[in-house]
Structure formats: C-alpha cells, structure tokens
C-alpha cells in the first residue's frame, strides 16, 4: 500500500503523459488485490469462502462504480489531478485502518521453511499449473477479466457515438450507465447470497447461460439497435456477468485450497496478473472490432461465453 501510495501522489505531480505512465506503473507495482483475497481466504473457513468472496466482489464493485461516476465529477470541477489526491488520502486512511484494526494475533507462528514455501515464485506457480482444475479456473477468470476490461468503456462509446451508436449526450448516457451499474451491483449482492446454496460452478453456469441467451439478440441488428431493447439486453448481460464474478473468485480459492492451502497468495497473485493483463488488452482488441462493425465485440462476448460454459460444464469438477 505504501508503494501504491507513492505512485498515486507521483501521478498527482505528473507533467506529461510519459511521467503519468511511469507513475501509474509504480502504482501497479504496489497493487495489493491478491493480498486482500488471500487474507479473506484465511479469515473465512473453507465452507465460508463463498460468503467471504461474495462480500469482496460486492464491495469492490460498489467502490469501482462509485469511483467511476464520482471521479468524473471531481475531474470536471477540480481537474483530473484531484482524483489522485483524493485517492492518496483514501489510501492513507486504509493504511491506518489496517494498522489498527486488522489483527493476526490468532495466527500460528510460521517456521522459516514454511514462509519460504509460501513465496510467490515460479516453483509454486508450476505446482499449481500441474493441476488441471487450476488451469481451467485460470482460463475462466481470464475471460471474466477480459469482459470486465472492455465492456463498460465500450458501452459508453456505443451510447454516445453519433454515426454508429445512439448519439446520446453525456448526461443521458451517464444516467443509463448508472442504471446498468446499479443492476450489476444488486446482482453481485444476490450472487453472494446464492453462492453458499448452489456453489460457484452452478452459479457460473447460470450466469453464462443468461449472457448467451440474451446475447443472441446482437445477431439481429435491426432489433437490438433500438435504445429500450438495447438497454434491456445489456442489463441482462450485466446480470449474467454479475453472477459469474464472485463465483469465479470463489472457485479459484476453493481449487487452490484443495491443491495446497499455503499457496493462496501465489495462486491468486498469478491469476490476478493474468487477469489484469487480459483486462488491459481487451479494449485494444475490441475497440478496433467495434470500428469495423458496432456489434462485433458483442459477438466475441457470445463466443467467449460458449467456451466458458463448455469448460465449466464438462471440465470443472462437479464437487465445486
């Protein structure tokens, strides 16, 4: 968090795009998402992992979408630098919160050999990659990151584009995106409640089927490129992906727990590294497709869901 904090305040001082890119890279070096997920895996017992990861997904997405919306207002009124300044103060608060609230007094002491075995290194990654279930889970979560990485930004472009999209103004499109995000967050919450009852595998399949069923609409351009219809279809896509989200993280944690509980940090960290990469390249791949034909990216979504459903249905162990 201290490295992330340093990168954040450096971004506040950036004078050009090169400096901003370098300082953002420093931020990325301090990203602590994997550690948070590993801590949740330690706090919650194995039969409660779905509950812990459900809460994690809920609060992460609430924070993400609130930041997405509020950040735009701050950037408009106070300039884009204000975003980094406010983020820096929030990180300071988080560091104090962790220092005074998060306790590990009840943790058994670990030997030097145990600590070494838990290090994030290629030896531990190879142990995980020898297990088919970890590989399948890695692929499924990578697809989830890929979808999440492009779809929000692309929807804004579709709503505002005057030649190929709907040509809506910023305010109107913001309200529609806010409604879609609200639906997504609500179903993240519902998903976290359903995880214990149905398990991550079944919930992932339900989300995938919903996305595929409503994704068929995008093959009928005249039908779906009607704003009310488009909003309804995209809302159901958001529901399907929301069911997929916490289920994917929970499945990952349960698979790692079965392989070797001490490798949670390595397993989650490697998954997130691949996931962040997929989320970063997604807009670079999908945006040119959208320039060719506005609905092409949605065809890719449909195809990815078919692949992920096949993997989940036939390759992921039914015990999950």
Protein architecture, described:
Helix 1 (2-13) runs antiparallel to helix 5 (81-101) and helix 3 (33-43) packs across helix 12. The protein has a domain at 49-74 and 120-313: Growth Hormone, Chain: A. The chain is built from 13 helices and no strands. It starts with a helix and ends in a 6-residue tail after the last helix. The chain is an all-alpha fold. The model is unreliable at 110-117 (pLDDT under 50).
Brief account:
This protein is mostly helical and about 325 residues long. Helix content is about 80%, strand content about 0%.
Helix content: over 70%
Question: What would you call the quaternary organization?
Answer: single chain
Strand tally? 0
Which architecture of one domain does the CATH hierarchy give at level 2? Answer: Up-down Bundle
Report the CATH C-level class of one domain: Mainly Alpha
Keywords:
320 residues, 13 helices
Give the SSE map.
Layout: H1 2-13, H2 17-29, H3 33-43, H4 49-78, H5 81-101, H6 112-117, H7 122-129, H8 132-160, H9 170-215, H10 221-224, H11 227-259, H12 264-292, H13 296-314
Helix pairs in contact: 1-2, 1-5, 3-4, 3-12, 4-9, 4-11, 8-9, 8-11, 8-12, 8-13, 9-11, 9-13
């Amino acid at each position: 968090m201290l490295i992330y904090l340093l990168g954040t305040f450096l971004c506040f001082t950036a004078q050009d795009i090169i400096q901003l890119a370098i300082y953002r890279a420093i931020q990325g070096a301090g990203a602590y998402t994997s550690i948070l997920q590993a801590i949740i895996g330690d706090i919650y017992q194995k039969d409660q992992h779905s509950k812990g990861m459900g809460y994690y997904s809920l609060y992460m997405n609430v924070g993400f979408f609130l930041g997405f919306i509020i950040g735009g207002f701050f950037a408009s009124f106070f300039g884009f630098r204000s975003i980094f300044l406010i983020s820096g103060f929030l990180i300071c608060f988080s560091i104090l919160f962790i220092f005074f609230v998060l306790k590990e007094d009840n943790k058994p002491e670990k030997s030097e050999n145990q600590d070494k075995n838990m290090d994030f290194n290629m030896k531990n990654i190879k142990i995980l990659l020898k297990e088919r279930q970890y590989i399948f889970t890695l692929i499924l979560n990578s697809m989830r990151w890929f979808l999440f990485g492009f779809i929000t930004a692309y929807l804004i472009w579709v709503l505002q584009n005057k030649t190929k999209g709907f040509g809506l103004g910023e305010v109107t499109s913001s309200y529609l995106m806010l409604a879609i995000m609200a639906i997504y967050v609500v179903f993240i919450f519902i998903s976290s409640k359903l995880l214990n009852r149905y398990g991550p595998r079944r919930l992932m399949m339900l989300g995938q089927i919903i996305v595929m069923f409503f994704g068929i609409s995008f093959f009928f351009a005249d039908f779906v490129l009607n704003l009310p219809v488009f909003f309804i279809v995209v809302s159901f896509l958001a529901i399907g992906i929301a069911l997929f989200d916490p289920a994917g993280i929970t499945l990952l944690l349960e698979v790692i727990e079965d392989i070797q509980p001490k490798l949670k940090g390595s397993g989650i960290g490697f998954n997130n590294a691949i996931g962040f990469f997929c989320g970063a390249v997604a807009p670079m791949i999908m945006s040119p497709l959208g320039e060719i034909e506005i609905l092409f990216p949605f065809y890719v979504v449909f195809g990815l869901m078919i692949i992920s459903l096949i993997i989940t249905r036939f390759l992921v162990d039914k015990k999950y």
